[in-house]
Amino acid sequence: MILSKFVDELPIPPILNPRWKDQFYTYYEVNMTEFKQSLHSELNDTTVWGYEGSYPGPTIEVESGEKVFIKWINNLPDKRLLPIDYTVHGAHVDVPEVRTVVHVHGASVEWESDGYPDAWFTKGFKQVGPYFRKQIYRYNNHDRACTLWYHDHAIGITRLNVYAGLAGFYIIRDHRERLLNLPSGKYDIPLMIQDKTFNKDGSLYYPKQPEKPIPELETSIVPEFIGDTILVNGKVWPYLKVEPRKYRFRLLNASNTRFYRLKLDSGQLFYQIGTDGGLMEYPIGVKEITLAPAERADVIIDFTNLEGKNIIMTNDAPAPFPTGDPPDENTSTVMQFRVTLPLSNIDTSVIPSYMGPLPKIKEQLASKIRYLTLNDNVDKYGRKLMLLDNKRWDDPITENPKLGSTEIWYLINLTEDTHPIHLHLINFQILDRRDFDVEKYKKERIIHYTGPAIPPEPQERGWKDTVRANPNQVTRIIMKFGPYTGLYVWHCHILEHEDYEMMRPYIVIR
Length: 510
Ligand code: C2O
Ligand code: CU
Ligand code: CU
Prior knowledge:
Distance between the termini: 56 Å
Structural class: mainly beta
Strand content: 35-45%
Helix content: under 10%
Number of helices: 4
Number of strands: 31
Shape: globular
Bound molecules: CU-O-CU linkage, copper (II) ion
């Protein structure tokens, strides 16, 4: 079943209202429920899970430095919506099916409020996971202005909970950004890009088995999920009517597995102004933007003088990335911009020539270097299993940086996929990527480089929390651990990998 393109308008998630706000703190409550929502006008309403009755969830907007408390409340039914594989870590038959825990991706948060995968809770907090510490999470928001997102992180079922709809934007604003006079208000729009597949009746389809089924299991995790339909902010192939002026779009890839390489079919440039962790030093004009799952790009698109034009945002990233099939005529389309609204005011917003300093972390500051491999392995059912440093989720903790210390991590990819590697708590900078001899490494555990160090792409020169670690390359990142101590995680953000062992705890110690 192929749905028509550009027949529904792009929804913009509502801004969440706090329950309480005074000069000291802000308090929100966010309910997770199951409901039906129209994802396309030719499709029956789809049963989804969302926050505050909305998929994507409402946007949480805070000011840098604002103290925010959020009570995330699980009001979901007791029955799962999508097929669970009970052989996956943390998802065994002895735990409740419907578990949730919320993580604000990219935020710097005390560990008890970070959404540790084993800190899950059920409806009414009746049952909780072993690392559950508190009902009300605390966010100090001392980060600079940036585009974050919140999503579910429950152990072993994150891929299903996020696919069911549990994701939303979390935007931090600050004074410095306001002074730049970027497009703002209704000209500042977040775009959450996802892929899904639908059953004929409009319900969400998620596979019960990989292409080559596992006969011993009724349901088995799949090595990747590639949907045949693209949604933006929860609508299939939407359109957005725009004025002939500049707009700011906060692009987020919130898909399970799919990467996007976005372009405008008008040949226009995106003016990228921000990365995962906030504004860059200078804007850059780019023809295409690659986004792995969880990566963000903050861009300005200028529709000035384009009255009457329709512009399509396209995608040409292979799936799985980078060696899979190219997208077909459907998945190569993301959404459409229609320059049909009259200009309501003179556009006085600007694309600034300089946005602020972004000091590079010096390599000499690093007190520790870690060499960490990304491997594939095979489980007892013959399924491919991706690991970090050949260790499983339950193996003893090996990454234990000291509070305030700087480290360099070498991500040595021995697999054939690009893995988007994400660290909680901190933002890092990408130092470089370098080709190396994989076979030699597998035999002798020696890194033999076969090419020069390649600096990060222009679009990655800023604060990052997720980095594409490409096959046959060593990707180096540098970061300073803090300001909190405690238990966090690092993982591949392909959710099917994360749920099946490609995630590790790490601890920041005093
Ligand atoms: Cu976006 Cu550990 O998550
Ligand atoms: Cu995160
Ligand atoms: Cu991965």
